[in-house]
Amino acid sequence: LERWDKEYVWHPFTQMKAYRREKPLIIERGEGSYLYDIEGNKYLDGYSSLWVNVHGHNHAELNAALREQAGKIAHSTLLGAANVPSILLAKKLVEITPQSLTKVFYSDSGSTSVEIALKMAYQYWQLKDPVRFSGKKNKFISLREAYHGDTIGSVSVGGMETFHHIFRPLLFERLETPAPYTYRLTENNDEEACKALCLDALEALLKERHEEVAGLIIEPLVQGAAGMITAPDGFLRGVRELCTRYEVLLIADEVAVGFGRTGTLFACEQEGVEPDFLCVAKGLTAGYLPLAATLTSEEIFNAFLGEPEELRTFFHGHTYTGNQLACAVALKNLELIEQTGLIASLEKKINFLAQKLAPFRTLPHVGDVRQRGMMVGIEIVQDKASKKPFPIHMQVEHHIILHARRNGAIIRPLGPVIVLMPILSMSLEELDRLTDITYKAIETVTAQTY
Ligand code: PMP
């Protein structure tokens, strides 16, 4: 298997030359909070299998929901027809998301849920007032270092130059506004100063260019892939107010932060924010199947009604859109979240994590520790004064991850940031072990390096 993996599989986001030098980790099965490789080694899943898993692996009730649906039908198309689980799921999503969101458009990955929101936002303005907005409102604002997916549309609103430059010209023109990266933008982690600076910069941009801008896309509360950048309280609300004032649609990308990760079911809830679009994926099926949804308001949907009808179709539809198996398992996931009181159970875990993370700050090569709910970023630096990351060629973060793996936990870095994104159903004992293994890995590897 190892040989065939190296011979046949092209891994995403992976330097394949380097990958081939190392022993691959081949996962064979999962059970609760653990993953098992083909040699029977057991690992705590400290990254929720790329931020998707909610109730644990190989979950009896999720498995049963899947089996039950498979016994009826696995898939039929949503183009020109409907199916039972997708109707029930849409109704449920509308009930649990912010009030103004009343329509659900399905797709199959976080990237496409974003791409759909961008296309809808763009088309909305053209339909709303074709004369006033002709040739206008065709750009999007996003935050510095933003990550919203890999399709050419979603990557064009991303702020990570590494993913971009190869593919220029991209699909949509992007305008950039600063991310509220308090650790980097202020001297003493001054959240209020950071918030003011970022909102002022956004307002200046909107004042000047709002007529060109269709929408602003943001990850509410935490910019995940950007390195777990946690926003100061009130930042999201400030962004909402500015978008409303300057007639720019707000797209909330909750692909990573949705379904409990930040401590509430959706991150927008924490600031009482109603976005014009809400993109969800990852945790929607609790880590079982690819499924995504873009929710939007009556106002946006209504622009796609009316005359002439042929101009008001929304041209997007994947073959597996609204897949029955995926919708059935998503429904069961949402039912379990309610039945198990998952969200209420998080407070204790979040506080426990905070307590366990405090000593990380005393490590000489830990510059910043950021936590929002069950999302954690530990930023590794050469020294606290310069805040400089280690040179990439030293692969410090990679060695930290390998050390943790040898001790029984799988975690992943994002650049210089070590990320913990535990499965939400993890017990306090498992969280205890996960943080201990991570602490030891950082302490040992950085001491060896420096
Ligand atoms: N948006 C955000 C915030 C994400 O974190 C991701 C994936 N990490 C995506 C979009 C893209 O989702 P997918 O990988 O399912 O296409």
TrEMBL record:
The keyword Transferase is assigned to this record: yes
Modified residues (N6-(pyridoxal phosphate)lysine): 282
Keyword Translocase recorded: no
Reactions performed catalytically: (8S)-8-amino-7-oxononanoate + S-adenosyl-L-methionine = S-adenosyl-4-methylsulfanyl-2-oxobutanoate + (7R,8S)-7,8-diammoniononanoate
EC number, as in UniProt: 2.6.1.62
Top-rank taxon: Bacteria
Function: Catalyzes the transfer of the alpha-amino group from S-adenosyl-L-methionine (SAM) to 7-keto-8-aminopelargonic acid (KAPA) to form 7,8-diaminopelargonic acid (DAPA). It is the only aminotransferase known to utilize SAM as an amino donor.
Protein name: Adenosylmethionine-8-amino-7-oxononanoate aminotransferase
Species assigned in the record: Aneurinibacillus danicus
Gene this chain is encoded by: bioA
